[in-house]
């Protein structure tokens, strides 16, 4: 997407969010488990009765566990369940089965050949699995980092194998990385944005640019200062604690590749934390997950993230602490 378009969409989403908040301040009693409406934005709560349908617009607060349900379900990239054809011969209630299949990208209603999956189901599974492995083992396109003007730093991980086996090492910056950050980054910024490949380089290649640009735009519109962005190679979420120690920002926003499922291998997450430091508890982090074309569209996610950052700064808290302060 070109930058001007991102600016326009970000502005529109932010205006919509403002209008929604004006109509229904966030301090209202917590919404009940049912279909809810934010202005023209309809949200379906999957933990409740599951009786109503989905959204017109997927911009919803993260605390309401809507992230994965914000868009009508897309088939897997390679088409698992994709054509919505049931693999069951002569189902008792075909219409109902198709309705169920439309609610989830999971491989339901696929039928079987004797005790085994059907050939096309098996091949699709193999293809999706291969895409997931590629996403984990791949590397982020250096052109993208160049385009976004991001320099790279490393964690204490030396290879992909080690990355998988030793999550603790992916949570720590190398000594050289710390030195580089001290030399090249703004110290004590309000917001530090960081990108990392995490468990899917594909997620970064496909969705990080639009999310990042929309987030920057959104923070600019809100008048919130940002630090010097950079990329962390083979990072884990908690690497933000080391970043917090070195640069002491008020908020860290980490855009990182999610563990690929067999539905999407290119899903990006944004993890946020107020003043992450050594010893930060997991409950003080928050996440907006499922950022990809079939989930939360990247530009909308970026615009929404700006609003979340604003709220974190206002309450000087994130995660469970934020929810408690908001009450
Ligand atoms: C793997 C995973 C886990 C693993 C993490 C273990 C590990 N070391 O990898 C376990 C089983 C522990 C887990 C637990 C939880 N998870 Co989880 N998890 C995921 C999953 C499938 C992938 C995450 C990922 O790839 N992260 C990127 C990699 C690079 O991160 P990492 O550094 O290797 O691991 C860290 C993150 O995974 C993070 N994390 C994992 N889940 C959550 C949830 C929240 C709210 C936060 C702040 C952080 C977090 O904790 C890990 C350790 O620091 C996502 C699904 C998705 N689509 O993203 C759900 C997901 C992120 N989890 C979710 C939830 C709700 C939880 C729990 C709150 C469940 C519970 N009731 O206990 C806990 C919270 C854990 C926490 N850290 O605070 C939700 C978040 C919904 C939301 N939008 O707020 C998601 C989106 C699943 C879903 N669709 O509902 N999770």
TrEMBL record:
Residues 58-69 have a biased composition (Polar residues). Binds between the large and small subunits. GO terms for molecular function: cobalamin binding; ethanolamine ammonia-lyase activity. Adenosylcob(III)alamin binds at residues 237, 258. Its EC number is 4.3.1.7. Keywords: Bacterial microcompartment, Cobalamin, Cobalt, Lyase. Pathway: Amine and polyamine degradation; ethanolamine degradation. It catalyses: ethanolamine = acetaldehyde + NH4(+). The keyword Transcription regulation does not apply. It is an enzyme of class 4 (lyase). Its cofactor is adenosylcob(III)alamin. Residues 58-93 are annotated as: Disordered. GO terms for biological process: amino acid metabolic process; ethanolamine catabolic process. It holds the Pfam family EutC. Catalyzes the deamination of various vicinal amino-alcohols to oxo compounds. Allows this organism to utilize ethanolamine as the sole source of nitrogen and carbon in the presence of external vitamin B12. Belongs to the EutC family. HAMAP family: EutC (MF_00601). The basic unit is a heterodimer which dimerizes to form tetramers. The heterotetramers trimerize; 6 large subunits form a core ring with 6 small subunits projecting outwards. This is Ethanolamine ammonia-lyase small subunit.
């Amino acid at each position: 997407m070109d930058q001007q378009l991102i600016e326009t969409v970000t502005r529109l989403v932010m205006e919509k969010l403002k209008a929604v908040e004006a109509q229904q301040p966030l301090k209202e009693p917590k919404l009940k488990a049912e279909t809810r409406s934010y202005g023209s934005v309809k949200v379906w709560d999957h933990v409740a009765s599951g009786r109503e349908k989905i959204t017109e617009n997927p911009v919803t607060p993260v605390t309401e566990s809507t992230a994965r349900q914000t868009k009508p379900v897309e088939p897997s990239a390679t088409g698992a369940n994709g054509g919505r054809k049931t693999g069951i011969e002569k189902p008792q209630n075909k219409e109902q089965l198709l309705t169920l299949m439309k609610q989830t990208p999971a491989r339901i209603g696929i039928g079987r050949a004797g005790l085994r999956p059907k050939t096309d189901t098996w091949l699709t599974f193999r293809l999706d699995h291969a895409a997931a492995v590629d996403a984990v083992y791949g590397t982020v396109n250096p052109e993208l980092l160049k385009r976004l003007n991001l320099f790279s730093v490393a964690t204490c991980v030396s290879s992909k194998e080690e990355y998988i086996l030793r999550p603790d090492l992916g949570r720590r910056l190398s000594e050289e990385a710390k030195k580089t950050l001290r030399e090249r980054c703004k110290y004590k910024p309000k917001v530090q944005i960081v990108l990392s490949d995490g468990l899917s380089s594909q997620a970064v290649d496909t969705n990080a640019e639009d999310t990042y640009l929309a987030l920057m735009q959104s923070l600019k519109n809100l008048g919130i200062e940002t630090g010097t962005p950079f990329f962390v190679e083979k990072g884990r979420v908690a690497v933000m604690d080391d970043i917090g120690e070195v640069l002491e920002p008020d908020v860290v926003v980490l855009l990182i590749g999610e563990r690929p499922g067999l539905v999407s291998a290119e899903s990006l997450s944004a993890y946020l934390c107020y003043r992450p430091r050594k010893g930060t508890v997991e409950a003080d982090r928050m996440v907006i997950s499922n950022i990809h074309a079939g989930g939360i569209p990247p530009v909308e996610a970026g615009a929404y993230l700006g609003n979340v950052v604003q709220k974190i700064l206002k309450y000087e808290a994130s995660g469970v602490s934020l929810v408690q302060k908001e009450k």
